[in-house]
Write a structure and sequence with these properties.
Blueprint lengths: L2 H22 L14 E7 L6 H8 L7 E8 L5 H11 L3 E6 L5 H9 L6 E5 L4 E2 L3 H7 L10 E10 L5 H24 L9 E5 H7 L9 H11 L3 E12 L5 H22 L12 H31 L4 H25 L15 H24 L23
C-alpha cells in the first residue's frame, strides 16, 4: 500500500522530466506544409443541447486551412438535432450524421469514419473546444520524415475549463500532475496505456488495420489504443495540442465517470491480455504490469482501510505508522504537482496559482479511485457471462463552462 504509489510517483517524475528535457524544453515552430493535408474533425454527440452550439461554432474557426467538420448525433432525445439543423445554415464546413438509435460513442465514430475524406481523423468530445492551433501540433506527427509513417494516433492535452468547485479544481491539478506526467513518462519507458478520448488524432489506415473502435467496450479510447499498439502502430502524446473540457462537479458524477474508466480498463485487459505473451509485444509489458499492480494496490487499500477503521472503532487506538506513511506520500504528491505545473505553465500561464488545491488530491482521490476499482472489478466478474451489446452512453455530469481565453 505504501511502496506502490511511492515508486510510481518517482517513475512518473523521472520519465516526465526526461520527456520535457528532450521534447518540450525548447519551443518548436508551428508545423506547416504546402499544401496542408485535409483533416477530418469528428464530434460525436448524444443529448448535448447545452454545449453543442458553442463547440461547433468554435471548431468552425480553427487556425488550420484545410479541414472538414462532421458531427454525429447518436440518437439524441433532447434539442440537439434541432440545434444542429440551425448550425448547418450557419457553418459552411459542417456536416451532420444522424443515428436514429443511441448505440454508443464507438458506434457513432465508426459511422462517421465512413464519411471522412481526410487521412487524419481528429475526434473531439461534444462539450470540448480545441485550441486554435491544436490541429497543427497533432497532424505534424503523421508527416515527420523518418518516423511519421508508423504513427497511428496522437493524443492531445486536456485542460479543465470549469473551475468553480473544489472537485473541479482538484481535477485541474490531476490532469496536469497525474495524467500529464503519466503520458509523458509512458512515452519514455513503454507505450501509452490510453489516449485521451476527449481529443485524439488517428491515421485512418491505422484504424482500419486495427479493426476500428469496439462498440461493446465502456471505454472505447482504451480499447482502440491497445488495438493500435498490438498492431505495432505508434501512439504519441502532444502536450501543445490543448483541448478545453468540462469535468464533473459532484461526487456522484465523479464516481460515475471513474467507475466507467475503471470498468472499461478492466474490460480491455480481460479481452486483450492473451495477445501480450509474445516478445514483439514487450513494450506493452510495463503498461500492463503497472495496471495490474494498481489493481492489487486498490484491493489492499480498501482491505487495510476497513481493517484499520474497525480496529480504531473497537480499541480507540490510532495507528501512527500508517499516518506517517500517508504524510510521506502526501509530500511526494505535492512535489509531483509542483513539477507538473512547472511544465504546464508554458501552455497555460497562471496555472501555478492552483497548486495549493493539490493538497486535497491524496485525501480525495486515493480513496475514491481505490473503492471505484474494487467495485468495478466486482461488476466485471458478475457480468462476464452476459452477452455483449452496444456500450450506450448518457450525458455526464458537467459544471458551468468557464473556459480561459486561448
Amino acid at each position: 500500500m505504501f511502496y506502490y504509489p511511492l515508486v510510481m510517483s518517482v517513475v512518473w517524475l523521472v520519465g516526465a522530466v526526461y520527456f520535457y528535457y528532450r521534447r518540450e524544453r525548447r519551443p518548436q515552430p508551428v508545423w506547416t506544409a504546402d499544401p496542408m493535408p485535409l483533416v477530418s474533425l469528428v464530434v460525436p454527440a448524444h443529448n448535448e443541447a447545452d454545449h453543442i452550439a458553442e463547440t461547433v461554432r468554435h471548431m468552425a474557426h480553427l487556425d488550420y486551412p484545410n479541414y472538414e467538420l462532421i458531427v454525429v448525433d447518436d440518437g439524441s432525445t433532447d434539442d440537439t438535432p434541432e440545434i444542429l439543423k440551425q448550425l448547418l445554415g450557419e457553418v459552411g464546413r459542417l456536416r451532420v450524421i444522424r443515428c436514429a438509435v443511441n448505440r454508443g460513442k464507438a458506434h457513432a465514430l465508426n459511422a462517421a469514419l465512413l464519411a471522412t475524406g481526410g487521412e487524419v481523423v481528429v475526434t473531439v468530445d461534444a462539450d470540448a473546444v480545441l485550441d486554435s492551433r491544436a490541429l497543427h501540433y497533432l497532424v505534424s506527427h503523421f508527416y515527420r520524415p523518418g518516423s511519421g509513417e508508423r504513427v497511428g494516433a496522437v493524443t492531445g492535452n486536456p485542460r479543465v475549463r470549469n473551475r468553480s468547485s473544489l472537485l473541479a479544481k482538484i481535477q485541474l491539478v490531476e490532469y496536469a500532475s497525474i495524467i500529464g506526467l503519466i503520458k509523458r513518462s509512458q512515452r519514455v519507458w513503454g507505450k501509452l496505456m490510453t489516449v485521451s478520448g476527449v481529443v485524439v488524432a488517428f491515421r485512418k489506415r491505422a484504424l482500419v488495420d486495427s479493426g476500428l473502435w469496439d462498440t461493446d467496450l465502456m471505454t472505447e479510447d482504451i480499447g482502440v489504443t491497445w488495438k493500435l499498439e498490438q498492431r505495432f502502430w505508434d501512439v504519441r502524446y502532444e502536450p501543445r495540442a490543448l483541448c478545453w473540457m468540462l469535468v464533473p462537479e459532484t461526487v456522484a458524477g465523479l464516481w460515475a465517470q471513474r467507475l466507467r474508466w475503471a470498468e472499461g480498463g478492466l474490460q480491455v485487459v480481460d479481452r486483450y491480455w492473451r495477445g501480450l505473451f509474445h516478445w514483439r509485444q514487450r513494450r506493452l509489458w510495463p503498461v500492463v504490469l503497472e495496471h495490474l499492480v494498481s489493481l492489487v494496490w486498490s484491493l489492499a487499500w480498501v482491505l487495510i482501510t476497513v481493517v484499520l477503521v474497525g480496529r480504531m472503532l473497537a480499541t480507540g487506538v490510532y495507528f501512527i505508522p500508517i499516518v506517517s506513511m500517508g504524510a510521506y506520500l502526501a509530500v511526494l504528491s505535492l512535489v509531483q504537482a509542483g513539477v507538473a505545473l512547472f511544465m504546464e505553465r508554458r501552455y497555460e500561464p497562471g496555472i501555478a496559482r492552483y497548486y495549493w488545491w493539490s493538497v486535497w488530491y491524496p485525501a480525495v482521490y486515493w480513496f475514491i479511485n481505490a473503492f471505484v476499482v474494487v467495485y468495478a472489478l466486482g461488476r466485471l466478474v458478475l457480468r462476464r457471462s452476459r452477452p455483449r451489446g452496444y456500450a450506450v452512453w448518457t450525458s455526464p455530469d458537467r459544471g458551468l463552462p468557464e473556459r480561459p481565453a486561448s
